[in-house]
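Re: the request from the purification team.
They wanted to know what the chain is likely to look like in 3D before they choose a buffer screen. I agreed to run a prediction and write the result into the notebook, where they can find it.
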Amino acid sequence: MAERDDDVALSLAELFALARKVLVHHGVSAAHADAIARVITQGQRDECHSHGLYRLPGCVRSVRSGKVDPHAQPMLRDVAPGVLAVDAHYGFSLLAFETGLPVLAEKARAQGIAAMAINRCFHFSALWPEVEAIAALGLVGLAMNPSHSWVAPAGGTRGVFGTNPIAFAWPRAKGHPFVFDFATSAIARGDIELHARDGKPIPPHWAIDRDGQPTTDARAALEGAMQTFGGHKGSALAAMVELLAGALIGDLTSMESQAFDDGAGASPCHGELVIAIDPTRFSGAEEEVGQARAERLFEAIVDQGARLPSQRRFEARERSERDGVRVPRKLYNDVMKLFD
């Protein structure tokens, strides 16, 4: 491990081991610690800093709150030929996803499309690791979830929606899948938290203050409400996520999740909807034709100098796998204090 005054360099193996050790130190089961540490490592590896090691203190805070069951065992329930439910029993969502993924894939291959509802889970992570895992199995993946009611509807002044991310992955025969993962809010909440942590201003379209006025003060934004991206369009998508990944699957909306937290400061507790689609079932003998159409679409995008979603992330992944990652020293010191 090499160090500089402003940061600490870690290999991916060292990063994973550090995250896992912190979690186990705070009473998280080995299975949960492995699943969480894998995703934290993936976030830091891909330079998604708001979803990397930065998330570890929040995980510990959630455990300390007493809300999360750090030993919860996910339970699978076969709802229908194309529907699976996983009860996380108030544990973190990642182990529940890993537990249900093989069955979800099996159902998708049998039916052509399958849905997995993850219920009663605490969620803090990005969704792209999940849809990438689905794409790695040769399936199309779609995932979404609510969070806490931090986001005001377009034209509103108070939080109703969560950041409500939507992620999608399309498997490709060569190279990385086509992947996007974005919040329906103007920015991920973690990015505002990082700006507040570093004392940096934010763009005025990210959030409003307590009085409903646009603000460049990250701390005022955290005390006010975030805004949706694209005005009424992002607002409508955020509502869709509340319905599909909340009301539809029998789980909490973002407002209910916020109320359930009751000031504990834990990660949001809610549900998640994951959908897997088998291209072979839909296209049959025409699957290669469909894949060729997709590749022509991607070529038309990049040939004019545009980037595919996640391209920068994949480039960061290659660097990190070769050179390791650098963690800001302040964050590293905060993580080491978790052993106190």
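For the purification team: The chain has a mean pLDDT of 95.
Please add any questions underneath this entry.
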